[in-house]
């Protein structure tokens, strides 16, 4: 028989689901609960989570509310952006990339408080359960992971609310009706899925969007900005130096204003099913475009093309929860090595849902006007060299054609 759980660290938002989980852990496991609430830039008020935890008997010293915005962008978002990662070609991995940081802090707090387990509120149908638990397995294989949604019999929102009322857990009025969709938010993005979004034929209702204005209602005049990069990371906006989280926050406001970063996607979940989600990544979309823009003039063709070949695998590893796996770290080392000369400035035009690169310059540019000019290149390039180059590359095609004639 397994050892009883004495203390568990819960990833806690203060919402209905995790509040029920908090009480359920106390009742079911007769254990002490430590709560961890991460400020990832989700724009919600976090102090009510503290008040609710105290109300439910959590010791004040066991309530962790941590501002991890800088760590999130510096150590997770920016390394991912160096790879130009997009899952299935579109998704900028806003939810996926937050999970390893939360897992890391759950483990750290468990060590600080002497807890023997951690718990999360991810359902048994989604990807997040996998991401949380793979992260904990990689960092602290001795810790038990409790996933209430896979254990309890509260299979509907009605049952959840009834259980909450039975145990004197406050239920906000807006939670008593059927939730029209569920959301997850952090500094990089907001995702929405479920309910009104479940039919992939139906257009996303405008009220679902929360981070961006409708591109049709965005300003009729384009706005031009510049982003400076050093070693592949953004360091300044319009010439003003900024920390990673400050830069992404500023880009989010620009993206919000111009309706940039909306994505309606049907994706393949790691657990096997397809799901339809709506993502808003305003600052992330601008940043991703800018990063590719600076790479266009600073990366060698071989390095750039190899990065593009590696990217789908790298993105899939993050999506599936393998941030702490050796293969992701191997790919990261290669990607980071490629970024040594990715320095310079990108100019972008923001207009009605679009972030378009319109200029780039770099002290480490590989772009040579002498070589590409249509005017006299003063001997920089001998066009006669192309004849032999073409003959050698055509040789195998000629031999194939002769054989098959």
Concise summary:
This protein is of the alpha/beta class and about 400 residues long.
Characterization of the model:
40% of the residues lie in helices and 19% in strands. α9 (301-320) runs antiparallel to α10 (326-338). The N and C termini lie far apart (75 Å). A hairpin with a 4-residue loop joins β6 and β7 (190-193). By secondary structure, the chain is α/β, with parallel strands linked by helices. The model has no long low-confidence stretch (mean pLDDT 94).
Strand content: 15-25%
- Read across the widest sheet, the strand sequence of neighbours is 3-2-1-4-5
What is the helix tally? Answer: 12
**Describe the biggest sheet?**
5 strands, parallel
Structural class of the secondary structure composition?
A: alpha/beta
Instruction: Give the mean pLDDT.
Output: 94
- Termini separation (Å)? 75 Å
State the order of secondary-structure elements, H for helix, E for strand.
EHEHEHHEHEHEEEEEHEEHHHEEHH
Please bin the fraction of helical residues: 40-55%
* Topology, number of strands: 14
Radius of gyration: 25 Å
List low-pLDDT spans. Answer: none
């Amino acid at each position: 028989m397994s050892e009883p759980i004495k203390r568990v660290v819960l990833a806690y938002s203060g919402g209905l689901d995790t509040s029920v989980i908090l009480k359920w852990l106390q009742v079911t496991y007769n254990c002490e609960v430590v709560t961890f609430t991460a400020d990832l830039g989700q724009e919600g008020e976090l102090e009510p989570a503290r008040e609710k935890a105290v109300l439910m008997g959590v010791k004040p010293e066991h309530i962790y509310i941590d501002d991890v915005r800088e760590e999130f962008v510096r150590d997770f978002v920016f390394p991912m952006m160096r790879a130009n990662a997009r899952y299935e070609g579109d998704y900028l991995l806003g939810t996926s990339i937050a999970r390893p940081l939360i897992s890391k802090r759950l483990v750290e707090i468990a060590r600080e408080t002497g807890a023997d387990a951690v718990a999360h509120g991810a359902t048994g149908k989604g990807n997040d359960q996998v991401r949380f638990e793979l992260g904990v397995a990689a960092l602290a294989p001795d810790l038990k992971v409790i996933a209430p949604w896979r254990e309890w019999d509260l299979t509907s929102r009605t049952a959840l609310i009834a259980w909450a009322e039975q145990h004197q857990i406050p239920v906000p009025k807006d939670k008593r009706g059927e939730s029209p969709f569920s959301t997850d938010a952090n500094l990089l993005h907001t995702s929405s899925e479920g309910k009104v979004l479940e039919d992939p034929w139906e257009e996303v209702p405008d009220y679902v969007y929360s981070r961006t204005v409708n591109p049709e209602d965005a300003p009729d005049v384009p706005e031009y900005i510049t982003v400076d990069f050093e070693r592949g990371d953004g360091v300044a906006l319009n010439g003003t130096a900024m920390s990673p989280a400050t830069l992404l926050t500023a880009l989010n406001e620009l993206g919000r204003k111009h309706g940039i970063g909306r994505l309606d996607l049907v994706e393949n979940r790691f657990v096997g099913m397809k799901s339809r989600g709506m993502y808003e990544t305003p600052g992330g979309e601008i940043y991703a475009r800018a990063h590719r823009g600076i790479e266009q003039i600073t990366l060698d063709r071989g390095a750039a093309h190899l990065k593009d070949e590696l990217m789908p695998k790298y993105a899939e590893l993050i999506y599936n929860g393998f941030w702490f796996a050796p293969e992701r770290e191997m790919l990261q080392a290669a990607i980071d090595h490629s970024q040594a000369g990715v320095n310079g400035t990108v100019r972008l035009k923001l207009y009605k849902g679009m972030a378009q690169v319109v200029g780039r310059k770099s002290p480490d540019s590989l772009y040579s006007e002498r070589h590409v000019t249509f005017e006299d290149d003063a001997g920089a390039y001998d066009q006669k060299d192309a004849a032999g180059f073409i003959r050698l590359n055509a040789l195998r095609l000629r031999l194939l054609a002769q054989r098959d004639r």
